[in-house]
Amino acid sequence: MSICVTDLVKRHPGAAAPALAGLCMKVPTGKIASVLGRSGAGKTTLLRCLSGLDPFDDGTIDVGGVTFGAGAKHGSFGGRIGLVFQTFELFPHLSVLDNCTLAPRVVRGEARSRAEARVKELLAELGIEDKAKAYPEALSGGQKQRVAIARALAMEPSVLLYDEPTSALDPALKHEVGRTLRRVAGTGVTQIVVTHDLPVAREASDLVFVLDKGRVAAFGPPAEVIAEAA
Amino acid sequence: MRKRRLAVTLLLLLPLLALVAPGRALAEEPATAPATARNSIAEARARGELRWGNDSQGGAPYVFQDPMDPNHLIGFEVDFAAALAKKLGVRARPVQGAWDGLLALLDRGDFDLVINGIEVAEEKKRVADLSRPYYVAAMRLTVRKGDAGAPRTLGALRGRKVGTLPGSLAARLSEREGAEVKTYDGGQNDIYDDLRIGRTDAVLLDDPITLYYGAIDPALEVVDGSFGEVSYAVGVPKGDAETLAAVNGAIEALAKEGTLAALYARWGLWNEPTERLLGGPKPPSTAVAEAHDAWRAAVGKPLPFWSRVTDRYPATLGLFARGALLSLVVSLLAMTVAVTLGMALALARVYGPKPLQWLAVGYIEIFRGTPLLVQLTMVYFGLPELGVTLSPFVAGVIALGLNYAAAEAENYRAGLGSVPAGQMDAARTLGLSKLASLRHVALPQAIRVALPPTTNDFIALLKDSSLISVVTLTELTKTYTSLASAMRDHLGLGLVVALFYLGLSLPFARLSRSVEERLGSKVRRPASA
């Protein structure tokens, strides 16, 4: 489903200028959007507001026709928006399978057997079905990332956010990220990728947004926008 | 699920409690009664049983464990209490308490009477009423044999080190003479041991103690003559006139019919001042001090270690086992309190709103920063003033639990602090509530970090549980100190009690290691492989 952000405002207490100053962006269903911008442009704030970790002060977020306004409580997007952390934040005390089934079981009350069957399919799609019983510490960076994606997808979100998906990976693995994004896009999930990595943005995304001072400074197909920026 | 596990744990503990309970009912532990409008003698008659307070650690010849069979209490005051109770038409039941606190325990309602060398003195009368005296003891000075510089008069005590019991007339006398007074809370034996090895220059104590501990040591010499007299009386609840009259009447009758004279003669304690006090018949001239002779035979000459191991120690094992069980059950229950409350405090401190955080910090600082003994004393002796009278067992569990909760809270706070903030963020972006995030994500990781210090704390608590002896519970350490005093054997029995403590703590240390390994293997599989 598509996501539409309208006039989003976020002020950090004590800061002179708002971190998000009326930001607007729209990403159609199943598309991959990259969000670029210098440090302090508002990328992290955008992610935290979109994922429900932080409240925002004004504007709306519309996910698949359901609109959330300011004052919406944390996590109130009801699992519609997932987030893959830069450091993955897998739960070290749980196996890969349990990492991915925890939320479906606890939040939705899904039966363990059903949740595990779904998650095993997801792991297979991402090519890590043999790691189901492993613990996070036994995984490589790329494997951890795919587990983090599977964990988010297990809640069947409409939108999946990524925070710097290539920064924690070996350079050799970076091209894998694009392939993974494409696989996920095939399931109809809309993806927003915050990144510094221009090659990945160019290769993997359908749309690029460049943030500056809490607003979208430029957007369009990667070929156009990145050429401009470069 | 966690709740169910707690319930199961408590259920498993119940049989243990049941094991301890009969032991408590049979012997030393007091039942608790409200401390208002006392009429001890009426209560005792209704019960059919006179609970008289004493400290068996004080030793011979007052109230002590028979060195030949430590499961029995003997002593001239055991005989006296039995005779007194019989006159009053009830059975006598000895109840254990720390000697220093006997009158406070009487005031609290843990005993009907106190019979344990309570001296007739103004300071005692402030706390309790005292009966007419039943015995007069001369003060005796004991020195090292062959010590040319030994003080042999009261005047010579000035500036010398004198050993005696705390709060006794002997202590006040020695202080008045300008002596450097050393008082002992442990057994009488220690007082004379210290004299023998030169830590003190003299011991000033009542005749009975001197006779049973000083005079039997060939390295010591009892100086001729009396250095004052002290009378022993029965402690009666303050203002309980009916009991006081009944006790006075019974003592008078026992004196007149010669029961007391015969009793003191049997213990070798008959003396001229007591004869003056009682005024009744003298003991028969054929009387022998058989109880005193038995004591000399039992402990006069220390047995070789292996003979003690084979002949004496087996009889103590039952007492040690009972003490160990009490220590273990109190510690387990106190730890349950500490872990539960500690977890709540840690969560309040880390995740709670500001006022709750302050409350948690205040609790932790107060309970961590004040001595456990003070807290236990306040819970047991202080709360009754507010109308809350707890049994010794409950008071012990609560005081230990509240104190250790502060330490546990800090362990769990450290554990929670070790969980990266991103973990909670990750849980919340998956839609988990704050509570569910704590339960499924933060706590399991925090516990792994907190487990080793928590196990350490449990072992420390097991040892600190020895403090509950001040509220009349005969746990493992108290069992040891009483037996050591009665059998005049600190070293050998010390090894026995050490083995019991190790037997309690080692399994927990082992359990914690295996749990740690199990938790550790989940997250560090490649490292450990």
TrEMBL record, chain A:
Residue stretches spanning the membrane: none
Its membrane topology: Peripheral membrane protein
One Gene Ontology cellular component annotation held by this UniProt entry: plasma membrane
Alphabetic keyword roster: ATP-binding, Cell membrane, Membrane, Nucleotide-binding, Transport
Ranges of residues in domain ABC transporter: 3-229
Coiled-coil region(s): none
GO molecular function terms noted in the UniProt entry: ATP binding; ATP hydrolysis activity
UniProt similarity note: Belongs to the ABC transporter superfamily.
Official protein name in the record: Amino acid ABC transporter ATP-binding protein
Annotated source species: Polyangium fumosum
